[in-house]
Design a protein that fits this description.
By secondary structure, the protein is mainly alpha-helical. It contains 19 helices and six strands. This is Putative membrane protein.
Length: 617
């Protein structure tokens, strides 16, 4: 009796009868029922989120930016959520939303409070605050609903942050553009200021030179007019004496003119008297005329003297008047001369002050020229450092600032859905459960083979082959159902099937070994081992996330390698790791068969405990 005959004998035993055959079929379908149904139910749950009822509350009433633009961020967010169709949104009031979440009508609620838009524009008013979005959840509805709601709000927050950042960046860039224009204009103004300051410096230098020359000239004049008040006073005194003398001379001339006038009058009077006397003497008219003609010869010199004396008297009067005016002018000059000298002195001092001020102005203008030049250069440098942008470029820069990183996903191996991501774990778990339930029907050790005195290794192989064949059927059925019915298609069909067969054979060998060595306790230990591997295999989360004390179990238990190998084959991963995983499972398989042979050897010896075991399944 070889191992194959031992296996066939056991197979005929467990398939004897119609009901027994149905049991075998049921056992073949156990992994399919477990893994297939679970993966079918969880194939793509994200595709049905649009059926999850969620409440949306919008209390925001909008706001006005500093530029006068009307925004309604709360309404915009609500419209995007309603249009997205990600969830079965219902817009309602805050009270109804809270009640609905409490009573399970909604899985969660999203509330956009009043002042949401105004808070978003707070940075423009130098009053920055974080805008709030309230999420109302109830884990009694579903724990995952809280996680889903958190993900939704995170996406909404990121979208709003991106939009607000883009608007802020656009305003900032526009400000930089305006600043650059202002700097360019300021630089031009500084250039003009530099030129004007240079002209002012040159003018101030000339003014200082002229003021110095004026000061020198006035000092010279001041030195020469020091005695001028005394001399003008002497001149005024002399002029007054001259005027007085001229007045006396004019009076004398006036008296002389009066005397001449009196002589002329007497001459005229004497002629009439002479004519009367001549007539009294008896002279006729002709005779009197001849005598008067002789008398009249004296009138011509007298007339000439009268005329000359009158002329001289008039000239003397004019001379006296002019001398008097000269005297008055000299007196006024003498009176004004001290003030003139003092004014010249003050003018000289003022010219000195002007020279000093002009020198200071020149120095200040020189510094102003230098400063204006530095200002011009600084403004030009600042304008060059401020980028020149147009509206299109500013929009692109603002968009980049708001969303600086674009994620390019490059997948070396990718699961097609959520269910596909879980498939390696549940296929491996199904293989273990499938092998475990087989030993509820299959006997781990053939007593007939032991009675025939077969070698332990042959007995071990014979006891393993029967469940291994059924396990192979289990794996074929579960892979076909998962691949075709559930639509989780492996990248490598044949490789996946071969690896599943190896996994099933290994797990069956381990459960076989536990039953052969320990009997009923071994069957229980197989269940415990399955539970431990559920935790440590890293089927749902990376194994590094489990508590550190369990890390060692991950490396020494076979399901870890079964899950890893199936991932590589189903998603198209690293073939080198598949080989390593297969070698580890093969080592578990060989080791389990060797230990089973040890159990077969022990069962060749009958003991009281074996005759009457303490625990019977």
């Amino acid at each position: 009796m070889n191992s194959l005959r031992i296996a066939l004998t056991e197979l005929r035993r467990i398939t004897a009868g119609r009901l027994a055959k149905l049991v075998i079929v049921a056992l073949v379908l156990v992994p399919t029922l477990y893994a297939g149904l679970y993966l079918y139910a969880n194939h793509d749950p994200y595709a049905h989120f649009d059926e999850l009822p969620a409440a949306l509350v919008v209390e925001d009433t909008g706001a006005t930016t500093t530029e006068g633009e009307e925004i309604d961020a709360g309404r915009d967010v609500a419209d995007k959520l309603l249009d997205s169709g990600d969830f079965d949104w219902t817009e309602t009031s805050a009270a109804e939303a809270e009640t609905g979440v409490q009573e399970g009508d909604y899985y969660f609620a999203l509330r956009i409070p009043e002042g949401f838009s105004r808070t978003l524009t707070g940075a423009e008013r130098l009053d920055p605050k974080q805008a709030q979005i309230q999420v109302i959840t109830n884990d009694a509805n579903s724990y995952l609903s809280t996680t889903i709601a958190t993900n939704v709000t995170d996406k909404v927050r990121d979208a709003i942050a991106s939009e607000v950042s883009e608007q802020a960046a656009a305003s900032f860039l526009l400000g930089i553009s305006d600043l650059r224009s202002g700097l360019v204009k300021a630089a031009d103004g500084a250039a003009k200021l530099e030129k004007g300051a240079g002209a002012l410096r040159d003018g101030a230098g000339k003014l200082a030179t002229g003021a110095g020359d004026l000061e020198t000239g006035l000092n010279t004049i001041e030195g020469k007019v020091t005695d001028l008040p005394a001399k003008t006073r002497e001149l005024a005194t002399g002029a007054r004496k001259v005027a007085d003398a001229n007045g006396e001379i004019a009076a004398t001339g006036q008296r002389a003119a009066t005397a001449v006038d009196d002589a002329v009058a007497a001459y005229e009077s004497n002629r009439a008297d002479l004519d009367a006397r001549l007539e009294a003497q008896g002279l006729d008219e002709q005779q009197r005329a001849e005598v008067l003609a002789i008398y009249d010869r004296g009138s011509a010199p007298l007339d000439r003297v009268d005329q000359r004396v009158g002329d001289v008297s008039g000239q003397l009067d004019q001379l006296a008047t002019g001398a008097d005016q000269v005297a008055d002018g000299n007196e006024q000059l003498a009176d004004a001369m001290p003030d003139l000298v003092a004014g010249i002195s003050k003018a000289a001092d003022g010219a000195g002050d002007l020279r000093t001020g002009a020198t200071q102005l020149r120095d200040g203008a020189d510094k102003l020229t230098t400063g204006a030049g530095d200002l011009k250069k600084g403004l030009q440098d600042g304008a060059e450092q401020a980028p020149a942008t147009n509206e299109e470029l500013r929009d692109r820069i603002a968009s980049t600032i708001a969303d600086p990183v674009a994620i390019e996903s490059v997948s070396e191996a990718k699961a097609s859905s959520y269910g596909a991501g879980l498939a390696p774990f549940f296929l491996a778990l199904g293989a273990w459960i499938g092998g475990y339930v087989l030993f509820l029907l299959v006997r781990p050790i053939s007593t007939r083979a032991l009675a025939a005195n077969q070698t332990p290794i042959r007995v071990a192989l014979g006891g393993w082959l029967t469940p291994a064949l059924i396990g192979a059927a289990q794996m074929v059925v579960v892979l076909v159902v998962v691949g075709l019915a559930v639509d989780i298609t492996p990248v490598n069909w044949l490789g996946t099937l071969g690896f599943l067969l190896l996994t099933s054979a290994t797990f069956i060998a381990i459960v076989h070994m536990l039953n052969a060595l320990l009997g009923a306790p071994g069957q229980f230990l197989g269940l415990v081992l399955m539970v431990v591997q559920l935790v440590t295999a890293g089927g749902t989360f990376p194994w590094q996330t489990i508590p550190e004390p369990l890390h060692g179990l991950h490396h020494i238990l076979p399901m870890s390698y079964a899950v890893d190998g199936l991932r590589q084959l189903m998603y198209g991963g690293l073939s080198g790791r598949v080989v390593a995983d297969a070698l580890v499972l093969a080592a578990f398989l060989v080791g389990a068969l060797l230990l089973t042979s040890v159990g077969a050897r022990r069962q060749r010896v009958w003991t009281p405990k074996r005759v009457r075991p303490e625990i019977v399944l």
